[in-house]
Amino acid sequence: xxxxxxxxxxxxxxxxxxHPIIGLDHFAALVAAGCLAAxxxxxxxxxxxxxxxxxxxxxxxxxxxxxPAGEVLVALSLLALGAFLVLARPNFVAAxxxxxxxxxxxxxxxxxxxxxxxxxxxxxxxxxLALIHGALIVGIVLVVxxxxxxxxxxxxxxxxxxxxxxxIGLAGIAQQLLPAA
Length: 181
What we know:
Number of domains: 1
Order of helices and strands: HHHHHHH
Structural class: mainly alpha
Number of strands: 0
Radius of gyration: 16 Å
Largest sheet: none
Shape: globular
Distance between the termini: 29 Å
């Protein structure tokens, strides 16, 4: 939306649909959630936890609940999400906690784009966020499961996705903590 707060239903919905996929860090979190959901016995529940926590984080930001060092926390969440993919069979409770934390910090960051909006674009934005997160996670789950069932994708390759997510997290931390040249 060019940095302008959405002013109507359509702009709110389009902003909600687009925002998570144009940011590499948020998209990497979605890929991690989808891959984990596809490869774990209770992975779908972890993905649902992520989406619900993301919405809660976005609402928290709109309600002016501050999250200090939000971008650093987003990057740290990518390190944790990627690590769970690298581990291949993480403990369910630990995975749920990490995905809940990641959802909250990513949602909080995504909530910045809609802060100050009127109710109609605000609700449309939240609907767009929920739709795109759910659709992408389900799509990733279906693709990963098809590739695994056809033996085109092995657990080791899903672990490589985790390593890439860790790399994106490290780049985010470096960007936030190292002085610009």
